[in-house]
Design goal:
It is a single chain. The chain is α+β, with helices and mostly antiparallel strands. It has one domain. It contains 5 helices and 6 strands. Strands 1-2-3-4-6-5 form a 6-stranded antiparallel sheet. Helix 2 runs parallel beside helix 5 and helix 3 packs across helix 5.
C-alpha cells in the first residue's frame, strides 16, 4: 500500500477527489497550500507520482528550492520537509513543541537534510508545519 491515498499512476488527484479523500482535513490542506504560496512567492505547485510505494503527492517549490511535500491520506495528510542541520538546530532554539523536536531528532538523514514527516490532522499540527517551513526557509 502506498503512503498516499492516491496510488494509481494513471489517476492524478483533482480538487473533488482530493477534498473527498481528505474530508475535514481539506481545509487544513487548503490553508497550508495558501500560506506557503503567500509567504514564499513565487511558489510553484506540482503533482508528482513517486512510485507505487509513495503514490501521488504535491510538491511546493520556491524558485528552485522545495519548501515542502504534501501527501494526501484518508482523513488527513502528511507534510514532509528536508531540514538541514542549521534548520534542525534552529528548531531546537525556537518554540516548537517537544513532540515535533523528537520527530526531527529521529528523522532519517539524507544529503539534503533530515527527512521530517508530520501528519496534519488538527490546526495545531498545521501551525507546527508552518513554523518548520519558516525555520527551513530562514536557514
Amino acid at each position: 500500500m502506498a503512503l498516499s491515498a492516491f496510488d494509481d499512476k494513471a489517476k492524478m488527484p483533482n480538487e473533488k477527489t482530493l477534498s473527498e479523500m481528505l474530508g475535514r482535513a481539506s481545509s487544513l490542506w487548503d490553508d497550508l497550500r495558501s500560506h506557503i504560496s503567500s509567504e514564499y512567492k513565487p511558489v510553484t505547485k506540482h503533482w508528482n507520482f513517486s512510485g507505487k510505494n509513495y503514490g501521488w503527492g504535491l510538491r511546493l517549490k520556491h524558485n528552485e528550492r522545495i519548501v515542502l511535500y504534501m501527501t494526501p491520506c484518508r482523513g488527513h495528510f502528511l507534510a514532509s520537509l528536508a531540514l538541514g542541520e542549521r534548520a534542525a538546530r534552529a528548531a531546537h532554539e525556537s518554540r516548537v513543541p517537544n513532540a515535533v523536536l523528537e520527530i526531527i531528532d529521529e528523522a532519517p538523514r539524507y544529503a539534503e537534510g533530515r527527512g521530517v514527516r508530520i501528519a496534519v490532522k488538527t490546526k495545531k499540527d498545521l501551525e507546527n508545519v508552518k513554523k518548520l517551513a519558516a525555520i527551513k526557509m530562514a536557514n
